[in-house]
Amino acid sequence: MDHGAGCVMTDVDGNDYLDFYNNMSATVHGHCHPALLAAAAEQIGKSSALGTPVEVQARHAAVVCERVPSIEKVRYCNSGTEATMLTIRAARAFTGRDVIVKIDGGYHGLHDDAQINMFTGLTDPTYPQEGLPESFPPAQPARGVPKARMREVMLLPYNDLAAARELLALHAERIAALIVEPMMGAAGGIPGDVAYLRGLRELTTAHDVLLIFDECATFRMGPLQRRYDITPDLTSLSKIIGGGFPLGAFGGREDIMAQFDPTRPGHVYHAGAFGGNNMSLAVGLAALNTYGPAEVEQLNAKGERLIRDLPEAARRAGVRLRMTGIGSLMHLHWGHGPINNPQDALARRAGLAELPELFHLALLNRGIYTARRGLFALSTPMTDHHIETFIDAVHDVLLELGPYISTHIPHLLVENAGH
Questions:
Q1: Has residue 417 got a pLDDT over 80?
Q2: Under a CB-based contact definition with an 8 Å cutoff, are residues 11 and 381 in contact?
Q3: Residue 239 catalytic?
């Protein structure tokens, strides 16, 4: 690609594409939004990074704390990876415990704690979780992550409150925090059942375990904790809060965050040359100020239409697929039936031959840019016409690929559903 404007990207050969990926959902305003350009131009004239407290940081923090009521104090870093890493560090320091519970298949960035079962589809060797029943998911560190790290990370299946109840009953005295996405993003756009998420809050409170919500991706939808009226102890943020510039943030209860106060004896150290970078804060503040509740609602409505209408367009083309997601962030899955956890999503990716690649390339040929894995994210410049264009393109692509699907993946055809 060479440049972007609004919801359109242009490649080096001059071809235009509707951008339904938006940099892994990080750019909610698409490309070159006038307010963001103005903020960047003004800030670069002042300095990109003064390395001191600045007014724009306080202004950005005020917006974050207003939109996420559970965040009483907030600190800044450079990415979602750092944000989740630092919420985990805060939880360990506050509780004096070492073990973190994460969801099997959950993605929370690139630090070692997050890279245990970050995706589904484990390969040998896998390791049973010590002290847990065999029915619990086995653990596997990503390549380059020490096996010893698995002693400090326990795994739970998603949307399974009974499993969480069992694990906490057995090991709560060792557990600092449970970290969860209210909607799993990289695993397949899988919403958490509201009763499940509220149940996690009740269980962690009862066992004196901290609850961390990773809303790096889902902040664009509300955030979800506000929509569901759930108050986690800590929250991690990134993506749209920087307006397309690198920015992460983490915050929560004042007593937990007070550990980072450098005037306190034995405080938790946190510093970095680019944490709270002035350019990222200025552009991020402009992005937030132009993406208030009304804009969130409008964009979510467009997304809900896509989630509803895309499977119907596929059905008219004779192909079974379904969409998961909430509002402006969603994921395509082939076939039919419920998707409640990453294992359900993984099963849908089996036996597809080259369909995902062909589908991706055929959309590119029609001027639609998406993630090959099936992730879609909307941006505010999109109109109903852009949504209709996308739905029509998917219908036409599936008609074009019909003979391939019929030959290689006939179980996806409507008339063969269930066979």
A1: no
A2: no
A3: yes
How is residue 120 written in tokens? 């589904």
Contact, 170 vs 305, CB < 8 A? no
- CATH number of the domain bearing residue 21: 3.90.1150.10
Of 107, 158, 291, 369, the catalytic one is 107
Is the domain of 328 the same as that of 410? Answer: yes
Quick check: pTM over 0.90? yes
- Catalytic residue of the set 214, 302, 344, 369: 214
Polymer length in residues for the chain: 419
Q: How many domains does the chain have?
A: 2
Residue 107 known to be catalytic: yes
CA 410, 412, 413, 415 dihedral sign is positive
Q: Could you read off the pLDDT of 54-91 as tens digits, one per residue?
A: 999 999 999 999 999 999 999 999 999 999 999 999 99
- Alpha carbons 400 and 28: distance in angstroms, whole number: 31
Helix then strand then coil, % of the chain, to nearest 5: 45, 15, 40
Arithmetic mean of pLDDT, 15-19: 98
What's the pLDDT at 122?
Answer: 59
Selecting among 17, 158, 233, 239, the annotated active-site residue is: 239
Active site annotation includes 302? no
Q: What is the mean pLDDT of the chain?
A: 95
State the pLDDT at residue 285: 98
> Domain containing 349: what range?
3-30+293-416
Contacts of 53 (CB under 8 A, 6+ apart): none
